[in-house]
Amino acid sequence: MKPFTTVEISLSIPLPAAAVILEDRYSPGSLYLVKRARHLKFLGGFYAFPGGKVDAADNELASSLDPWDIALVCAVREMFEETGVLLLRDNQGNSIKSSQELAQIRCDLLEKRLTFAEILSSQQWTISSADFYPVGIFTTPSFSPMRFETRFFLTRIPSGQVPEVYAEELEEGSWGNPSDHLKKWYAEEILISPPVLGLLEKLNQIKPTDWRIIAESGLVNIKEFKLDRVRFASWIEVVSVICPGPSMAQTGNVCLLGHATFYLLDPGALDPLGEQAIQTAIQSRVDSGDVFLGILLTHHHPDHIASAKFFANHWRVPVFAHQATAERILDKVKVNHFLNDGDQLPLGFNHFTGSNLVLTAFHTPGHAVGHLVFFEERSKTLFAGDLVSTSTTILISPPEGHLATYLGSIQRMIKMEPELLMPYHGCPAEDGKKVLETALLHREKRESVLLSCLLQSEFKSIEEIAFEVYRGLPEPLMKLAQKQIYAGLIKLKEEDRVLELEQRWKLFK
Ligand SMILES: [Zn+2]
């Protein structure tokens, strides 16, 4: 293990946010979940409690500088914007009813003709903090490029109001007891944002009549909610770790996959903290009677294999990878079983869906010669390794990297029509096919930029092209950009579209 002190990493700082656990006044225990629009970058397509991030005006409206008071303003404003439910009281202390006028006020807020502060002062409406129970704080694990420190409030919908979701950000809303929502999640009919899943599980263990009492004494153990270990389906657990990167350390999603039996995918932790987090996750599965079957590697890069040897030795489990990967890590990790395209690994019986989970390996070279992705066909879940990322651009570095092969690998996986996509770097995405298509589109755009740069003159060196295309990019990112350009030039040369003379390049006319 390497010392942690030398690690240089840019993790995004969590932004303050708030969310509302809205309970049905007439059907105690029934909670309102909203489905986030698929186009949203952060957990698009996942179900969550309504909410959003704190804005500057929320600070000014808050009764104090206490983060909970600021979050409360945010929670009330976001709730009104997203669902039309207004959690305020009038100057007589009465709650507010749905009306044509209220709908118009919401419209004015959404279209920025009115601010939330103006609405409160003109209508003499106020937030009654007694209506809300602070429940807990959840901080987005480091896997996400966008991170939030979200404060959750429990409250009841005022009488005479009906939620109506804001179509720009949300697809639909649905009421149900925690067990109703959880049943759908276990059956893999819906995805639920990890903190909301944790809260629903907590609430499900307590009678709704006791929710408020327990909320007051701290429903959620805050420490527990800060763990970088979350579930995206009943058989997918993610441990977010810091791992080595090409220019600086980055975060990686190490996965535990399976039900009664499980595999560990890409344990690339750089530091003892990450290794400890993975170790804890494995230990708790083994303690509950699950069988640890082995370690799967998508490819040979250090951020995917850094702690593979440690876990293979400690747990005495075999390592599985493509032969080309095995050859590249001979001195680091012993690969016991070669995986070929189409090889299948059973993950056990999923008693929630009544079906067997099977992981299929697909050989997807381009980023690395031995690159594999793993696909679970029934749920259409793709463990993408470095085929794509939702937080960074995948480096195609010749001669190991080959752009045309890489694009072919992406196209092949698009045909599988993946739904949930778990990248190694970045936030999981509900619409996997879209993520892959976006990656292709991005490469097409980069190619047209490269072509238009070459159009302008005679032979150019890679350094000259990089200087024009990525002007102002700091070293060592410029070095990585040059590699990407080189990969693009090789593709164009193979297509007879550019000429190369003494490492200088020109359009073939
Ligand atoms: Zn890689």
Query: What count of domains describes the coordinates?
Result: 3
Q: Please work out how many helical segments DSSP would assign.
A: 15
Assembly type? single chain
The kinds of small molecule bound in this structure are:
zinc ion
Give the end-to-end Cα distance, rounded to a whole number of Å.
Answer: 54 Å
Give me the count of strands: 22
Major beta sheet, specifics? 7 strands, mixed
CATH superfamily of the largest domain: Ribonuclease Z/Hydroxyacylglutathione hydrolase-like
CATH topology of the largest domain: Metallo-beta-lactamase, Chain A
The mean pLDDT is 89
- Tell me the structural class: alpha+beta
- Form type: globular
Instruction: Write down the CATH class of the largest domain.
Output: Alpha Beta
- Fraction of residues in β-strands: 15-25%
> Percent of residues in helical segments?
25-40%
Query: What is the correct CATH architecture of the largest domain?
Result: 4-Layer Sandwich
Low-pLDDT runs: 1-9
Could you describe the 3D structure shown?
By secondary structure, this protein is an alpha+beta fold. The protein has helices at residues 56-61, 67-83, 100-110, 116-123, 178-186, 194-204, 211-216, 272-287, 302-305, 308-315, 323-328, 403-415, 432-455, 462-469, 477-494, and strands at residues 15-23, 31-36, 47-48, 51-53, 133-139, 148-156, 170-176, 229-233, 236-243, 250-257, 261-265, 291-296, 319-321, 337-338, 344-350, 355-363, 372-376, 381-385, 421-423, 460-461, 498-501, 504-507. Helix 5 (178-186) packs across helix 6 (194-204) and helix 12 packs antiparallel against helix 13. The protein binds zinc ion (ZN). Residues 299, 301, 367-368, 386 line the site of zinc ion (ZN).
